[in-house]
Amino acid sequence: xxxxxxxxxxxxxxxxxxxxxxxxxxxxxxxxxxxxxxxxxxxxxxxxxxxxxxxxxxxxxxxxxxxxxxxxxxxxxxxxxxxxxxxxxxxxxxxxxxxxxxxxxxxxxxxxxxxxxxxxxxxxxxxxxxxxxxxxxxxxxxxxxxxxxxxxxxxxxxxxxxxxxxxxx
Length: 169
Description:
- This protein is α+β, with helices and mostly antiparallel strands.
- The protein has helices at 3-17, 23-30, 34-50, 73-80, 90-102, 107-114, 119-127, 150-155; strands at 21-22, 55-60, 63-68, 105-106, 131-136, 144-148.
- The strands form 2 sheets. The protein has a 3-stranded antiparallel sheet. It has a 3-stranded antiparallel sheet with strand order 4-6-5.
- Helix 2 (23-30) crosses helix 3 (34-50) and helix 5 crosses helix 7 (119-127).
- The longest helix is centred in the first third of the chain and has 17 residues, at 34-50.
- The radius of gyration is 19 Å and the shape is globular.
C-alpha cells in the first residue's frame, strides 16, 4: 500500500471515530510498526496545520483526533444552535490547576491548598468532564483521587499533561 493511501485511510479513521484514536490502533489497522504510524499521523497533523482548513488534527498523549479549529467555534455554535458555554469560575479554575499540577490528588489535599471547601468546584469540573476519578488512596476511608481528562487537554490546547507551563516558585 502506498504512503498517500495510508494517509487517506488514517484521515478516514480519524473522521469516523469522533474521538482520539491511538497510534497502536492505527498501526494495527495499517499493519505497520508504531513508529511508522506515529510518523504518518504527525505528517497528517502538519498537513492540516499548513492549510487554511476548518479542521485540524490534534495529538492527545499517544492518540490523535480530527477536530474543528477553535477560531470557528462561534460559527459552529450558530449552525448547531448550541449556546456558548459558561466560563469557569475562579474557584473552579484554581481547583482545576491544583488537580492538573498535583494529580492524582484527593479532595482534602485540594481543600488544604485552597483553604476552602471545593465540593461545588469538583462537581462542576466533573460535570464538564475536565476531571475524573482516577482511583482511591490506600489509607483509611479510601478517599477518591482526581486527575484531568482528555477533554481538559483539548480545552487548554495541550497534547499531554507534560505540556503544562512550569509553576513559578
